[in-house]
Write a structure and sequence with these properties.
With 359 residues, the chain is an alpha+beta fold. It is 44% helix and 20% strand. An 8-stranded mixed sheet has the order 2-3-1-5-4-9-10-11, sandwiched between helices. It has a 3-stranded antiparallel sheet with strand order 6-7-8, covered by helices on one side. Strand 2 (147-155) and strand 3 form a beta hairpin. Helix 1 (4-21) runs antiparallel to helix 2 (30-69) and helix 2 packs antiparallel against helix 3 (75-102).
């Protein structure tokens, strides 16, 4: 594949965006300036990768020509062949990066993320599994230097969570975690099972890109905001002030509740953040549905009725059903070592998106 025309296209577009950003008037529109700034950063990286790729291709061609005239058993020929092996690997790696830039970028990839985990089938065991998933994502975020912000939770009477909602802030959070949306199934022996029988339970994970005010327009008259006293852990003040906030979005009946902060205002801000993100997810899902016929195997859409992964504790097995990948490292996976599955999911998603690009 001749990638040179695409690299030259990156360079031309980079100049156009750079010229647009040099005009002070562009900053009169914050949304437009942010969009151009993100595009500039992406194009600059692609242009740099493209430059290294073209340089590697030229060096490889020079070495190949040299080997045509040099005696095969000479020391120089041996050195050239060794260098060619390295250059071929580098060319393949850089070509892949250039191809990644050809796939349409997801504008939400750079967003911070809200994750909602809910217990599903399986009673108290599903609530315990929801807590295990929360811990797993927390460990993964810590390993990547991301920040976790607890938003709301409903503890189960026997331990775990009926529901837990939290935010994740950092670099490329949604880009990596969006593949976690869906139904997660666990197979294990519950602590309360005297006869050692394996139970199957589920939990649902929703991964939402954090919405910005420019993404979703919410009219004040469409909101019903109620305050009440929070319940649960949180110190002496938690049950003595009306700090919990519940927002009902009237057009759809969607309900959002936030009670983790003692400040009513902070809870309202967090609840609005969750509401915007849920509405943005619905908007994105509607757009994705238009392309479902063309993308038969779509990764990361967050369909709630799809069982995406199984965690089998007796066999120490974790299986991702979307890419038919099975690994036997469940203890490490539950400790937050998720990249062994997230990386193949990202690669598979790239393959699907590149299939839509006419190269």
């Amino acid at each position: 594949m001749n990638l040179r025309p695409y690299i030259e296209k990156f360079a031309r577009r980079l100049e156009e965006v750079e010229a647009a950003l040099s005009d002070p008037k562009v900053f009169d529109n914050p949304a437009k300036s942010q969009e151009l700034s993100r595009e500039y950063a992406r194009l600059k990286e692609q242009a740099e990768v493209g430059g290294r790729y073209l340089k590697t291709v030229d060096e490889l061609a020079q070495h190949t020509e040299f080997l045509k005239t040099e005696p095969a058993d000479s020391e120089l020929a041996q050195m050239a062949r060794e260098e060619n092996t390295h250059l071929e690997a580098e060319e393949h790696r850089l070509a892949r990066q250039v191809q990644m830039g050809l796939a349409p970028p997801d504008p939400t990839d750079s967003r911070n993320t809200i994750i909602e985990i809910r217990a599903g089938a399986g009673g108290s065991e599903s609530a315990l599994f929801a807590a295990d998933l929360f811990r797993m994502y927390t460990r993964y975020a810590e390993g990547r230097g991301w920040k976790i912000e607890h938003m709301d939770s409903s503890p189960s009477d026997l331990g775990g969570f009926k529901e837990v909602i939290f935010g994740v802030t950092g670099s490329d959070v949604f880009k990596r975690l969006k593949y976690e949306s869906g139904v997660h199934r666990v197979q294990r022996v519950p602590a309360t099972e005297a006869q050692g029988r394996i139970h199957t339970s589920t939990a649902t994970v929703a991964v939402l890109p954090e919405a910005q005010e420019v993404d979703i327009e919410i009219r004040p008259e469409d909101l019903e905001i109620n305050v009440c006293r929070a319940s649960g852990k949180g110190g002496q003040c938690v049950n003595t002030t009306d700090s919990a906030v519940q927002i009902i979005y009237k057009p759809t009946g969607m309900i959002v509740r936030c009670a983790d902060e003692r400040s009513q205002q902070k809870n309202k801000v967090r609840a609005m953040t969750v509401l915007r993100s849920r509405l943005l997810e619905a908007k994105i899902a509607e757009e994705n549905a238009k392309y479902a016929a063309r993308r038969k195997e779509q990764v990361g859409t967050g369909e709630r009725n799809e069982r995406i992964r199984t965690y089998n504790f007796p066999q120490s097995r974790v299986s991702d059903h979307r890419i038919e990948l099975t690994l036997y490292n469940l203890p490490r996976f539950m400790e937050g070592d998720l990249d062994c599955i997230l990386e193949p999911l990202m690669a598979n998603d790239l393959e699907n998106r590149l299939a839509e690009v006419k190269l």
